[in-house]
Amino acid sequence: MAILTATDLVKTYPGEEQPALDHVSLSIEPGEFVAIVGPSGSGKSTLLHLLGGVDRPTSGQVQLYDTAIYGLNETQLAIFRRRQVGLIYQFYNLLPSLTVAENITLPRELDGKKVEAQRLNQLLDQLGLADKRNALPGQLSGGQQQRVAIGRALINEPAIVLADEPTGNLDQRNSQEIMALLHYANVTQGQTVVVITHDPQVAAQAQRVLTITDGRLTEGA
Amino acid sequence: MGILAKLGWRHLRTTRGRTALTIGAMGLAATLAMATLVGLRSFQTSFYQYELRNTGGMVAAFPATTPAKAAKLRANAAFDQTISFVDAGRATIGTTKTDSIGDPFRLTVTTPAATAALKPMLVNGRLPRKASEVLLSDMLVTAHRNIGQRIQVTVAGKTQRFRIVGTTNGYGGNFLSTRGVLQVVPHLPAGRTVVMASLKSPWQGHQRLQAITKQAGLAPRDLQVNLAALTWMWGAKSNDSQAKQIAVVGTILAIVGAVALIMIYTSINLSVRANRQRYGLLRSIGTTPRQVRHLVYGEALMLALPALGLGAIFGIGGLGVAIWLMNGVLSGNELPITLVLTVDWVPLLAVVVFMALITLLAAARPAWRASRVTPIAAIRALNISPQLTRRKLRQPWWVRRLPDPMMRLAAKLDRREGRRATMLTTLVVTVTLFVGLTGFIGNAWRHYDTGEAADIRATLSRSGDQTAAMRHLADRLDGVKQAQVTRQAQLSIQKGPRGSELTEINLLVVPDRQAQRDYGWRPTLLNTKALFVDADGRRHMEWQVDPTYSKPLRLIVADQRDSKAPGLSVRVRYQPLAKDPVFSKLLFNNGRVSLVVSDSQYQRWAAALRVPDKTLESVLYVKLARPSAHTAVVKAIKAQFGQIAIMDAVADNQQQAAVVLVMKATAYGFIGLLALVCLAIVVNHTFANLMRARRGLAMLQSIGMTPRQVVAMQAWQYATLLVAGWLGGSILGTGISSVLYRLSASDQPVALIIPWGQIAAAGAVLLLVGVAFIGATWRLLTHQDLERLLRAE
Q1: Alpha carbon distance B127, B183 (integer Å)
Q2: How many CB atoms lie within 10 A of CB B509?
Q3: pLDDT (tens digit per residue) in A55-71
Q4: Overall CATH class of domain A4-219
Q5: What is the pLDDT of residues B295-334, one digit of tens each?
Q6: pLDDT digits 0-9 by tens, B548-595
Q7: Alpha-helical regions (H) of B312-373
Q8: CA-to-CA distance for B775 and B707, rounded, in angstroms?
Q9: Taking CB atoms and an 8 Å cutoff, what residues of chain B touch A107?
Q10: CB contact A93 to B (< 8 Å)
Q11: Do B286 and A109 touch (CB under 8 A)?
Q12: Set of chain A residues whose Cβ sits within 8 Å of the Cβ of B6
């Protein structure tokens, strides 16, 4: 059974005639590592945000397991994002006033749950940030900040991790480290991962590659 | 600490500049609230204490009762302090049993415990120290019955001799009559006892006192309460004065609340606008709208705490200094009131609750806005293109004619980007408020010392003709420019020119020699003008008695108007008071009409007019050569005539001027603070806009504009805003000041008064604000990291 199904998604931004997404449908199986590639302005990020419940489509539906996410109200959708989706952005989007550890545990604490110290330490070790747990984002390199963002995405063990150009702002070495972390989550924890990228090297590491052009989706690179 | 509180706390700590600005703005609102509430409380308690002085610090006097019931009353837990008086019975002083109006004398006895309460009632002398000393009612003072002299008092056939050590004006106002003598003894004798008490708390004092009276088995209708005092503490049963006080305080608090609400709302709203992306990010990782709202509320309350601290420091501190200065003015002019800074839990708790409520109310809309930020809008940091109409895109003629390209660019950007409507409106309202209200107060609460009338007027009633003694005294007084002695009575016109019927007239009887020299023996009517309002509502000054009226005036004694007294017809000469050689500087030019007659003329009229001899007064008018001589002159008059009634205009003027000064200082302080809070809203807005425009300004710098050019461009925008606000507010403020003055002035025609001083003050403050804006902009531009700003998403 597919973990995530998008059916006939259409997104037209106000004031624009051409839809950013034009009747897109896709299905992602549990444990899959999927890359979505396409040129700038093709609708990659729009698709990712619709899949993650960050934005609402003009028409169509996204289903995570049995839940039609756009049937949820704002509060339910927020809780859905918090528990079922891990989002990673190109520009990290960390809260500058919280430490590394606090940024990572934020979604869990918003849920009113405590994070076990062992779990946090383990995650920090995996991310290579054990010695930076009390640092503020401003004191970290780009690669380190992106690792914190990955930690925040994984802390709640979500159903799916959605990464929007996670290496777009990093050099090659840091890009490789980030991809290795995402692979590690995918392989060892069975985490489903969807990555948006225009980097062929990143896309080549995915099990399945979807191409989006002018808002239309096709299978394969 | 929960994650939301932690997030809020960290955010406030990491955005120190904005946090400090917001705390400062909220602190100003808190200062206004604190100063207003503590100030009102201080005035309340000060006037409560002032009114209590009239009853020796006691709030109530219970009806006379038995010693046992009195003891029970004194034990009541509601009382802070109690004292007792025993009525020892009717007294005969020497051979006299009643005063001049027939009230019997009494001997009242109390203990040394009451002496502190007697002190405020002491007119002259000191309090008794032993049982052989007494206080005498000042109504009973005569040449042979005064301080230092001995009197014989007989009560129930028993005669005692006492030494008078002081005079009193009647203990406790209406509480206890001392139309007699008051003795202080170590132990109270048995007898009907009056208990007086002060309350621990004046809250609902009147009702509680009535209940206590009822419980003690006494008649509540005979309870005497210092209602004037209780009214100040809102402890009287509902009465008009108390209702008015509550309405005034309610209005002031509503104004303060509205201004504080706008101030705090603006601060929080600006903060929320600046953090739109942060809220979006939180929403994208699963923060619910409710959690975002709580975050905003939490941050607002965190800011309110230090703001309250600032409010306490500046509000109470500033008020303390103001009260100290005002007390200096009051005591320097011998005004019998001392303002006391009262910082008790009532205003403090009220300010805390007030600020918390206002903060939560002010945060409600920004919190709702923050919770509505969509995750996608924040993630993409979408730059929303402004909706520009063709009119805004077009360059008006005045922009095209500006000589400097920077000015043209500034004007263009201002038209297209400026969010000036809110700021301009706030600024206009601020200046209007300041100029209008302070201008009105400056005009309406002016102390009119016309200097037209006598500096001192001494009146002796029911003492026979004392004019000769007065003239003799006047000849010996130092520092006197003019002195005039008359016998005086009040008449009214029974028949005369149209509109003059019932007009009251001062009958001034002058010596024959003066009547011959200054008035040619002719009865002379010293005419004055008064304000009249015609059918169209126009005000104009008119003679009180038409001077063209050629027939005789029919006069009658004023208090016999309703009787069938015959009256007297007199043909008079009309003379404007202002041109009179004798009385022009002694009587008010817009006061009562006077009729001057000679002594022998009056003797002839007296029989026809039937003026009761006892109603004739002997009056001494004095115009001083130098005002400072007033104390010595008053002392000399009192020394000779004892119980003479004296009007000391110099002292009254000084006291009135001091009261006006204190009232003005209070009102100016309040309005100034109010205007300052409104101005802070504009400052806050302007700085917030500047912070938001940083990237845009960095872009201008990156394409080659120097910081000086950018500052010049910004300065243009500030200048147009401040000048427009100043001009608009000054015009509206002048109008409001004039309208309020027209509505309030009733005794003279009014003209448009332009409050130039207030307009200049507002201009000076705005100039300072403009300079501060320019300085801050210069500092910002010369210290900002262009590369970081330009790279920022």
Answers
A1: 10
A2: 26
A3: 889 999 999 988 899 99
A4: alpha beta
A5: 999 989 988 999 999 999 999 999 999 999 988 888 877 7
A6: 888 888 888 876 666 666 778 889 999 999 899 899 888 887 778 999
A7: 317-332, 345-371
A8: 12
A9: 285-286
A10: yes
A11: no
A12: 98, 102
Tokens found for residue A176: 């490789």
Q: Which two tokens stand for residue B79?
A: 């009382």
Amino acid present at B311: G
> CA separation (Å) from A23 to A64, A197, B316, B779?
18, 21, 67, 53
**Secondary structure (DSSP) of B170-224:** -TTTTTS--SEEEEE-SSPPSS-EEEEEEES--TTHHHHHHHHHHHTT--GGG-E
Q: Are strands A85-88 and A160-164 parallel, antiparallel or unpaired?
A: parallel
What was the pLDDT predicted at B382?
A: 43
With the C-alpha atoms ordered A104, A109, A115, A117, is the resulting torsion angle positive or negative?
positive
Nearest alpha carbon to residue B453 among B648, B633, B705: B648
Dihedral over Cα of B212, B215, B219, B220: its sign? positive
Handedness of CA B270, B273, B277, B283 (dihedral sign): positive
- Classify residue A131 by its DSSP letter: G
Is residue B294 within 8 angstroms of chain A, CB to CB? Answer: no
**Spatial distance between the Cα atoms of B159 and B789, rounded to a whole number of angstroms:** 102
The answer to whether B493 and B545 have CB atoms below 8 angstroms apart is yes
At residue B384, does pLDDT exceed 60?
A: no
**Taking the CB of residue A172, how many other CB atoms lie within 10 A of it?**
10
**Amino acid identity at B786:** L
Tokens representing residue B477 in the block: 């007084």
CA distance B280 to A87: 13
Partners of residue A102 in chain B, C-beta under 8 Å: 6
B274 interface with A at CB cutoff 8 Å? no
**Which residue of chain A is at minimal alpha-carbon distance from B375?**
A54
CB B679 within 8 A of CB B769: yes
Do B140 and B91 meet the contact criterion of CB atoms below 8 Å apart?
A: no
Write out pLDDT tens, residues A114-137: 888 898 998 999 888 999 988 888
Residue of B4, B275, B285 to mutate for A, most A C-beta atoms under 10 A: B285
Question: How many angstroms separate the CA of residue A102 from the nearest CA in chain B?
Answer: 9
Q: Give dist(CA B275, CA A180) in Å, integer.
A: 34
Determine the 3-state secondary structure of A162 from DSSP.
strand
Using DSSP's 3-state secondary structure scheme, residue B690 falls into helix
Query: In the structure encoding, which two tokens stand for residue B665, read together?
Result: 């200082």
Please report residues of B whose CB lies closer than 8 A to that of A45.
380
| Strand ranges in chain A using DSSP code E only, listed in sequence order | 4-11, 21-28, 33-37, 59-64, 67-68, 85-88, 160-164, 192-197, 208-213, 216-219
Q: How far A158 CA sits from the closest chain B CA (Å)? A: 12
Write out chain A residues lying below 8 Å of B379, CB-based.
Answer: 49, 54, 89, 93
B-proximal residues of A, 40-79, CB under 8 Å: 45, 49, 54-55, 74-75, 78-79
Name chain B contacts of A54, Cβ cutoff 8 Å. 284, 375-376, 379
Domain range list for chain B: 1-49+240-384, 55-225, 418-449+652-793, 480-624
Q: Hey, where are the domains in chain A?
A: 4-219
Distance (Å) from the C-alpha of residue B274 to the closest C-alpha of chain A?
Answer: 15
B153, β-bridge pairs: B93, B160
Using alpha carbons, list the distances in angstroms from residue B113 to B116, B117, B378.
Answer: 7, 8, 76
| Pairwise CA distance, residues B609 & B688, whole Å | 82
| Angle, helix B276-284 to helix B345-371, in steps of 10 degrees | 70
Residue type, B432: T
Please report which confidence band the pLDDT of residue B367 belongs to, taking 50, 70 and 90 as the band edges.
Answer: very high
